[in-house]
Write a structure and sequence with these properties.
- By secondary structure, this protein is of the alpha+beta class.
- Helix content is 20%, strand content 26%.
- It contains 3 helices and 8 strands.
- Strands 3-2-1-8-4-5-6-7 form an 8-stranded mixed sheet, covered by helices on one side.
- Strand 1 and strand 2 form a beta hairpin.
- The longest helix has 13 residues, at 2-14.
- It is globular.
- The chain starts with a helix and ends with a strand.
């Protein structure tokens, strides 16, 4: 039993690291798609959910908007409120400057993540709804597939 558990954990841990690194990620907010690029070609595309107020770029904490701009994957987080999470480097210096000029806090903690670990409702937490606080959400199966292909430092462009 212990050997079986150790083998499972070893297999799972191995699959949490990037096996086939992609070069670039593009999020198309209007299309509700995320595309993974390798050598200039789309490797995979997935349907996504966005922040609960998806039109426009994020300006301040709590506005429910998904940011727009050029960022990178800052961290791969296993222990989160969601299945797995990829931390996006929001806010960048331009986001901070814009927020401060408007006397706002820019917010932060923008992620690409799966569904919630607790309180999951399949009728609400799906790609037909924009339900996050500004993050990009996908199914857990898709999150695991992306997780395997992403390394910290991978660039991400979030477009209108």
């Amino acid at each position: 039993m212990i050997i079986r558990l150790l083998l499972f954990l070893l297999f799972f841990a191995k699959n949490l690291y990037a096996l086939e690194n992609i070069d670039f990620i593009v999020v198309y907010k209007e299309k509700r798609d995320i595309a993974l690029y390798k050598e200039g070609k789309v490797l995979k595309k997935f349907k996504i959910s966005l922040g609960f107020e998806p039109i426009g770029t994020k300006i301040k904490k709590g506005d429910g908007k998904t940011p727009e701009g050029l960022y990178y994957i800052e961290d791969k987080i296993r222990e989160s409120s969601y299945f797995l999470a990829l931390k996006v480097s929001y806010p960048n210096p331009w986001d901070i400057r814009r927020a401060l000029e408007l006397n706002y806090h820019p917010g932060g903690q923008i992620m690409i993540h799966g569904v919630p670990n607790m309180g999951y409702d399949r009728n609400y937490h799906n790609s037909d709804n924009d339900w996050t606080e500004g993050c990009v959400a996908i199914s857990n199966r898709q999150m695991l597939e992306i997780w395997k292909k992403i390394s910290v430092g991978t660039p991400i462009l979030i477009k209108k």
